[in-house]
Each structure stands twice: as C-alpha cells, then as structure tokens.
Amino acid sequence: MAATLHDEPLVVLASTNTIITLPDDSLLLTPATITVSPVTGKILSVVREVLPRSSFPSNTTYNDLSPKFLVPGLVDAHVHLNEPGRTEWEGFNTGTKAAASGGVTTVVDMPLNAIPPTTTLAGFQEKLRASQGQCWVDVGFYGGVIPGNANELLPLVEAGVRGFKGFLIDSGVDEFPAVSANDIALAMTTLKDSPTTLMFHAEMLPPIAESVVPPPAFETYAIEEIVSLAELAPKLHLHIVHLSAVEAIPILRKARKQGINITAETCFHYLGLAADDIEDGDTRHKCCPPIRSQTNQDRLWEEIVEAQGEGCIKTIVSDHSPCTPELKLLPPHLQTVDDNSLRPNMIHSDSGIDMTLPSEHDHDHKSRSHATRPELKSTDSGVVMTLPSESPSPIEELPNPLCLTTTTTVTSHPNPAPQQRLLPITSTNQGDFFAAWGGISSVGLGLPILHTIASDRASHGLPAPDLVDMVRMCSQATAQQVGLYHRKGAIKVGHDADFCVFDAEERWVLRSGEMRWKNKVSPWEGKQFMGRVREAWVRGEKVFSLGSQNGGFVMGRPTGRAITEKRVA
C-alpha cells in the first residue's frame, strides 16, 4: 500500500466519519484513513477503512480522530481582510487566525476595503507584500472592476487573481466606485475568453416611480441588468455575491435555463439570522444586502437544498466584513469588551470616512435601530441619501447601501465632485441602522452555524442539508468557483492535505474572547451552537488545535501561503 512506498516520515489521519471525494467528484461519508506527505503537503492515499497504527512505520505521526468528522478544509470564497490601508478593521494575521480556528484552510480576499484596492497590478503587488509572513491559512485574491480600469484586468488574470468583483451601488469607500452598464459590458468583453469569474455586488437603485422602493428590488433590478448583458460573454462565469432576497431566485433560475453561466452564493448570516428577531439598535446585524424576514430565510434554505439540481445558490460563504466597533455605532449596552470596560472613543479618518468623537458626557441610552428612512435621489455620481423627518421602518425594508451618506464637496480636486461620507458618531445616532457601517464578522463560524440550524430544521421536518451537503457548498463548490479545485476543497489523492476536524455533538456558546478576528463585534456573540471545529490542518500541518498552547495555534508561527498561480479553469 502507499504508506510503505515512501521513505519519508508519514502523517496519517483516520476517522470513522470521513467525507471523501470519489473519482466522479461525488462525496461520500465513510470510514477512511488518509496518508499525507509532510514534505509535499499532499494527500498520498485514501483508504476506505480505519487502519490501525500498526499498519504504518514507527516514525509515522498517526491521528485516529474517530468519531469526529474529518472533512476537507473549508474554502471561504468571500472574505475582507482589509490590509494594507485599513488594518484597524482587520488584517491578514487576525483574519486568517479566525479562519483557521473554524476549519477554514483557504480564504479568498476581496479587492476592497484595502488601500490601495486590488484594481491594478501595482495594488495587487502591494497587497501581496503586506501578506508575507502573516497568513495562518492559504489566501487567494480577487481583483476589482471599477470605472476606468479595464486595461488592468488581463494583467491581473496573468498575475493569478481568482476572479473579479464590481459594485452596482456605492461600495461605501471612495477608492472603489460603482460600475455602470457600460463598465460591466467592457469588463465582460475584456474577460470573455479568460478562465475567471466575474462577480457582482448586485444591488442597484431602481428607477424611482414612487417615494418608497421595495428593498428586494435593489437586488432584482441589479441582477436583471447583469443578465441582460450576459450575451456579451457567453462562456464567462458570472456570479452574484451574498444573495439575500429570494425574489431574485426566479430570475437566476430562468437565466440558467436559458444557458447563461451564472450562479449565486448566500451567506451564513442570511441563513441563521432573521429580521424578526433583531432588537432595536443592535447594529451588529447591519449588513448589505440586509438580513431579511424568517419567511425569506426559510426560502433560502429550500434553495440551497436544491443546489445539486435546479437551485441557483451553489456556494455559502461568510462575507466577513469587519470594521472598528465605533463604525458600528453600537448603543451603550453593547459597547463592552472582554474586561467589561467601554470601548474607547476614537477618531477614524481614512479614505472617505470622517468620524468625530461623541461627547463623553452626552450618552443617550435610547437605541434607535431604524429611525428614519432616507429619501433616495439619483445623481451622476451615484446614490445620495438624505434624512427626512423621522419615521420608523422595519429592518427588512431598509434601503441598503453599505453606509448612510451625506454629500460633501472635495475642494482640493480641480473639478469638485460629490463625495460620500459616513455621518459622524453622536449620542443620537448610536444604534442607528442607517448610519452604521454594514458588515458582519463571522469567518470561521460557518460550519457551526450551518450544522446548528440545519439540525434544528431537520428535527422539525423542514428541508435541510446534511454535513455532506455543507462540505459540497463550503469546500468543493467554493474551490471550483475560484479555480482551485485541482488542489483545494477535497479529500482526494494529489490534493493539498487541508482538513477540518469537526465534533458534531459539542455544544458551546460564542463569547467575545473566543472571537479571533481583530474587532470583537459580531451578532453571533452569545449564540449557542451544536458542533465545533477541533482542529485545522493546512498542507499536512496541524495549524489549530482547540485548547492547545498559544491559543490553539500550535505551529507558533503563520505558515499560510499567498496563492498566485494563474487560474486555468
């Protein structure tokens, strides 16, 4: 057998519950023994039984993990690491630590909110330099599509980006402006013969016929725009990131039936949080698109169960999009850290964000979650939002750009143009969903979230994926989406030896001190989960072991790599 054919010491992992990938790419839950080369970090053999330690040379590192689940390391294809430029929000070190602690062995970094963004080859190279020596898991990178950078797209393909992302609505940061239909068309024609994925933040202000626009229309209108242009690049894979509104599902299904190569992802927070349950002022839940109703969530679950068939949602990701606590405008009762002290006041002034200190003597303990609906106006520079008189609005009905903005003028530019600015923090906008930054921190929590809620749904006879389905959507399909399935997302001979060890029975509660991302703010705090990641392995090395020294990071130093190989599929 393969274990006796190699002179170097071997690493062996075995479990009675292993999810392996068969030659036809189907997944199978089976007892298995996996042999790994610590030299190459590759899987040497997969045997469908648990072999005893005595089957291997004495110098073998043998791990029988039974009855825990041994599954492929997760590939989170939507993470914002924000470095360089906004490292007070997140960074390679803390973001990839959080990923490893949740069995995520590969993340793919979005082209924003770093400064510079990954919209030029020079910007990509700067990001690669910033990542060196900091990553605890392997990291791939996306490029960005913005107005005027079409000539940078093919050089970025050659440099190894895994795909591209553009916004159809204000991104919330000035250095990553939204694209027009003309920009989208140019990106499609530029990339039409490249092995890549063109992704969209699909929210867009519809033509305003009434004073109030139903928020799902932000998504449906944008997706219709993308689909209408798809004929420009018939072979190009198009992808909708963080799909929230189920009203978009029929549009995507129809497009797929017409032969358009388009898929969608949804996020853990859309499957695990519902607007019905969010307390007023709990801006930890602010994200874009917004968290919607329980009815909407139930329909998303039904769609992901159909992922292998007619379903259009093929992947589930975190969209880990952190910021400082101050930018979430948390009400006073949520402004705590591990030592129970108030979070410190700070000034943040960086690339279009100008925050002023709240008064230290003027704390309004009333939380305002949805206080006012902005008046929507379309301008040449994008969407401008102004606040009329106060009128309560349910969370699901919030118009949802990434931040509430006011219009100012940049007088240093020879041709001043409107520029979007976050409103300053004051005691009266704490807990204000409109003014808070939109983004949820959750990288590394995906498997416990899905397993917990799916188990509960199954116990009530509702459609729910099993653990094999979760691996398909969070490892296999995400690896395929970013052109890494030849080495990631599968327990298969020749693949990277990336593993997640999952205890499906352990019950635990997420506390602030267990959040390994930089800013300890998340709506998942205090939630009880069933199922916990115990270990993570990257290329044959155990990088995380819950309860071990160094906070579980047993390697003592980051050994993750930047993935820059040119995509071929």
UniProtKB/TrEMBL annotation:
Its cofactor is Zn(2+). InterPro entries: Amidohydro-rel (IPR006680), Amidohydro_3 (IPR013108), DHOase/Allantoinase_Hydrolase (IPR050138), Dihydroorotase_CS (IPR002195), DNase_TatD-rel_CS (IPR018228), Metal-dep_hydrolase_composite (IPR011059), Metal_Hydrolase (IPR032466). GO terms for molecular function: allantoinase activity; metal ion binding. Residues 350-380 are annotated as: Disordered. It comes from the Eukaryota. Residues 469-543 form the Amidohydrolase domain. Gene3D superfamilies: Metal-dependent hydrolases. PROSITE patterns: DIHYDROOROTASE_1, TATD_1. GO terms for cellular component: cytoplasm. The keyword Transcription regulation does not apply. Coiled coil: none annotated. Keywords: Hydrolase, Metal-binding. This is Allantoinase. The lineage of its organism: Eukaryota, Fungi, Dikarya, Ascomycota, Pezizomycotina.
